[in-house]
Write a structure and sequence with these properties.
Layout (H helix, E strand, L loop, with lengths): L32 H8 L22 E2 L5 E2 L60 H24 L3 H24 L8 H17 L3 H13 L9 H11 L3 H14 L5 H18 L2 H14 L3 H14 L2 H12 L18 H10 L3 H28 L3 H13 L6 H15 L3 H9 L6 H17 L3 H14 L4 H13 L3 H14 L4 H13 L3 H14 L4 H13 L3 H14 L4 H13 L3 H14 L4 H13 L3 H14 L4 H13 L3 H14 L4 H14 L4 H39 L20 E3 L18 H9 L39 E3 L20
Antiparallel strand pairs: 1-2, 3-4
Protein name: Intraflagellar transport 88 homolog
Organism: Oryzias latipes
Keywords: TPR repeat
């Protein structure tokens, strides 16, 4: 009860509720003279008034509170006056200064809220660039710019310039640190900038293969404990040791980096483990590599690691390991969307526009490359392990095909079957290859086209041109845009000598695939057969732009220029061939022939001598060299060449007579006599040998002269009798033909003549070999010397000695080129074809491939 106070009876509890502040009374504003005058002024300012203390113009009306007290209000009617000043006193600063009110307002200044009477603002205070902090900021900016320029230079391929920029950035950064220390702000050194400079410098050293400098720079970063996570850079150091083939140190640094990286960075740890596995693989420690790769395939499988795991198991010969690794490889998820999403499924134009925009963008290209790489690895591993995982490669291929059919790569099963047939081809088991390929005749069009193309190739090699033509048609019907099938069809038409039609097929193959070099090559050969030399030259010039340094193509170009009569151009192109194959004796001999035709004997001698040095069994080269030294009266030098010809053609007496003649011309009569006596023992009826024996015996006064004279007369008589018999036989045959013509004078009978045959017997002999060039050699480089020597041995009767300008005789392969298709795409693997050389005796000039070459 002590805290309870009772109200006094005479106290009015509701007094003061009707009292109010006159400041908020707006009804009398119209009668307020000061307010009305303020409204009429241009600045809206009330006239100056001096406050009267303690009240205002309205007067200080007391306001009663709830407790009955009367106090004057602090308002315009009774508040303490702030704007009022007494004379000589300055007005205190208040919060209304920002609105334009100042202490001088009472002294006659105008009210200027926008500050229009203040004049222009003073100029900004300039930065003091001489200050140490400003200099440091400028230097930091220069260092950053140099780092950026170094990176840009490396991205554009200017590695040396990038290194110079990185070195300059390092020098400026060191100067910056020294300036910080001198100014006493060493605690504010920019560690991030130092780290960036050192890392960029180490990278540029590594890119320029300055490995010791790069390692030293990385060591500076790693040893500095003030940098964040420097241990990761040990991966870079391990990469440098790997490049230096210092594999133990590379593994050491990879493991150190692995220890310093937490398990939170799983992807980084997986990549380091993959590097460790690759190093073990290079070192031949396949068991350790298998351990690393298997760990990766369990944690984060990828195609590359799976491929390496299969290789390691293959190297160790572990069949079960190979099977397990192959199954892990084909089960790796690619993370690629189905290609059906790129096929328009509706008629919505906006949706179709989006599909058209994304179906060939960078993401789709990346997905396509990733899928192609996976298919390549799977095909390679299947072909590798198929012969090793089972007792026969056929069983191994069947197991691989079954595994692939049960995986996400179902479409590769048919390609593996095609590879199985190709493996049969490499093993020369053509029957099994044909049976395997014939199983695809009822498959989808793509596989059918590939199988039919290969079958056409096989039958073409077996010279079963009808079957080759049949399967070429089947391949074309399955896929008309298959350039390999079109080329094979053109080849089968070519052997039937329908060159115009063959050219059409080759043109169509080029239209479907402009990079089909086989079609372009065979088209050029077809134009040569049609005697359209300019068109053929155009084809081979285009092909030369595609296949740089192809000696076959350049030989064809040289041959065409020779046929067109431009010998200088032919020589220039053959010189390019020599730059590619400097030891080809036939090209050297061809150059000698062309220089001889141009009258340049010295150059001809050089190239013929080089040809003889690389292939001393070419009878035409030997003949030219011997005849040249006879013409220049160097008989001693000619002897060695004619003796070589005697070894090559021992049944030809003319070479031995030339040897004896050289001895006789050089004045060595005794050696000449011995040589003639040896010839007489081998060829006793040779008249020329006996004549020289009689002459030499007479000059030397030998007693055998009478014996040789008797043998000479007998031989001449025998020769005369043989000539008379030949003449009489010719006369009787001519009389018989003349009588038959007289008997049939009144009858007109058509005479059928067979077409003129070429002087070269064409014999195509193709052999299937993997990973070959596109065409078989046009000019043999000495690899088929046995066949060449046999053909050249038969051609000796073209030579007339001692003339030195006889035409050069050699052989040239004549064959048609057909090829088969790899299942991953046409023209991936083609067997090499070879040709057997057959030269007719009456062919006395070198021809550079008038026929197609099968591919």
């Amino acid at each position: 009860m002590e805290n309870v106070h009772l109200a006094v009876e005479d106290e009015d509890l509701y007094s003061g509720y009707n009292d109010f502040n006159s400041t908020f009374f707006t009804e009398e504003l119209e009668n307020d003279i000061g307010f009305q005058q303020a409204l009429r002024t241009s600045q809206g300012r009330r006239p100056l008034m001096t406050a009267k203390l303690p009240g205002t113009a309205i007067g200080g009306r007391p306001l009663a509170s709830s407790f009955g007290s009367r106090v004057p209000l602090a308002s315009s009617a009774g508040r303490p006056v702030t704007g009022a000043v007494q004379e000589g006193a300055a007005r205190p600063m208040t919060s209304i200064r920002a609105a334009g009110y100042t202490s001088t307002m009472m002294r006659g200044s105008t009210f200027d809220t926008l500050g229009q009477h203040r004049g222009p603002a003073p100029p900004l205070e300039g930065k003091n660039e001489d200050g140490p902090e400003e200099k440091i900021k400028i230097m930091e900016k220069k260092v950053n710019d140099l780092i950026e320029e170094s990176c840009m230079a490396y991205s554009s391929g200017a590695s040396q310039l990038a290194l110079e920029k990185a070195k300059e950035a390092r020098r400026k950064e060191q100067a910056l640190v020294r300036q910080r220390e001198q100014s006493g702000t060493a605690d504010h050194i920019n560690l991030d900038l130092t780290y960036s400079v050192l890392l960029n410098l180490a990278n540029q050293y590594e890119h320029n293969e300055m490995y010791p400098e790069a390692l030293n720079t990385y060591q500076v970063i790693v040893k500095n404990k003030m940098f964040n996570n420097p241990g990761r850079l040990k991966v870079n150091m391990g990469n440098i040791y790997f490049q230096q083939k210092n594999y133990p140190k590379a593994i050491k640094f990879y493991r150190m980096a692995l220890d310093q990286i937490s398990n939170a960075h799983k992807e980084m740890r997986i990549k380091i483990m993959q590097n460790i596995g690759v190093v073990f693989l290079r070192m031949g420690q396949y068991s350790d590599a298998i351990t690393s790769f298997e760990h990766i395939m369990r944690e984060s499988p990828n195609i590359t690691t799976g491929y390496n795991l299969v290789l390691c198991n293959y190297a160790t010969g572990d069949r079960e390991g190979m099977k397990k690794a192959f199954q892990m490889l084909i089960s790796v998820p690619l993370g690629i969307d189905d290609e059906d999403k790129y096929i328009p499924a509706t008629d919505d134009s906006s949706t179709n526009m989006v599909i058209d925009a994304i179906k060939n963008d960078k993401l789709y290209q990346m997905e396509r490359d990733k899928k192609a790489q996976a298919e390549k690895y799977i095909m390679t591993t299947a072909k590798l392990i198929a012969p090793a995982i089972e007792t026969s490669f056929a069983s191994g291929f069947d197991w691989c095909v079954d595994m692939v059919k049960a995986s996400q790569y179902v479409e590769l099963a048919n390609d593996l079957e095609i590879n199985k047939a190709i493996t049969y081809l490499r093993q020369k088991d053509f029957n099994q290859a044909v049976e395997t390929l014939k199983t695809f005749e009822k498959k989808d069009s793509r596989v059918k086209s590939v199988a039919a193309t290969n079958l056409s190739f096989i039958y073409f090699l077996e010279k079963d041109y009808d079957q080759a033509d049949r399967y070429a048609d089947l391949a074309m019907n399955a896929n008309r845009y298959n350039p390999a099938a079109l080329v094979n069809k053109g080849n089968t038409v070519f052997v039937k000598q329908d060159y115009e039609k063959a050219a059409e097929f080759f043109k169509e193959a080029l239209k479907n695939d402009s990079s089909c070099t086989e079609g372009l090559y065979n088209l050029g050969l077809t134009y040569k057969r049609l005697n359209r030399l300019e068109d053929a030259l155009d084809c081979f010039l285009k092909l030369n732009a595609i296949l740089r340094n192809s000696d076959q193509v350049m030989c064809q170009i040289a041959d065409l220029y020779e046929q067109l009569g431009d010998l200088q151009q032919a020589i220039e192109w053959l010189m390019q061939v020599i730059s590619v194959t400097p030891t080809d004796p036939h090209i050297l001999a061809k150059l000698g022939k062309l220089h001889n035709d141009e009258g340049e004997k010295s150059q001809a001698l050089h190239y013929y001598s080089e040809s003889f040095r690389y292939f001393p069994s070419n009878i035409n080269v030997i003949t030219w060299l011997g005849a040249y030294y006879l013409d220049t009266q160097f008989c001693e030098n000619a002897i060695q060449y004619f003796e070589r010809a005697t070894l090559i053609q021992p049944t030809q007496v003319k070479w031995q007579l030339m040897v004896a003649s050289c001895y006789r011309r050089s004045g060595n009569y005794q050696k000449a006599l011995e040589t003639y006596q040896n010839i007489h023992r081998k060829f006793p009826d040779n008249v020329e040998c006996l004549r020289f024996l009689v002459r030499l015996s007479t000059d030397m006064g030998l007693k055998e002269v009478q014996d040789y004279a008797t043998k000479l007369k007998k031989a001449e008589k025998t020769k005369e009798i043989q000539e008379q018999r030949v003449r009489s036989g010719r006369e009787s045959s001519s009389r018989g033909r003349r009588g038959s013509r007289e008997g049939s004078a009144g009858i007109s009978t058509p005479v059928l003549t067979s077409p003129m045959k070429s002087s070269i017997t064409e014999d195509v002999k193709a052999v299937s070999q993997p990973e070959s060039k596109l065409f078989s050699p046009l000019l043999d480089s000495g690899r088929d010397s046995s066949n060449s020597s046999r053909g050249e041995r038969r051609s000796g009767k073209n030579i007339s000695l001692p003339a030195s300008n006889e035409p050069y005789e050699s052989s040239s392969p004549k064959e048609l080129d057909a090829y088969y298709v790899d299942p991953l795409g046409p023209l991936m693997e083609r067997p090499k074809t070879g040709a057997k050389r057959v030269v007719e005796e009456d062919f006395a000039d070198e021809d550079i491939g008038d026929d197609l070459l099968p591919e």
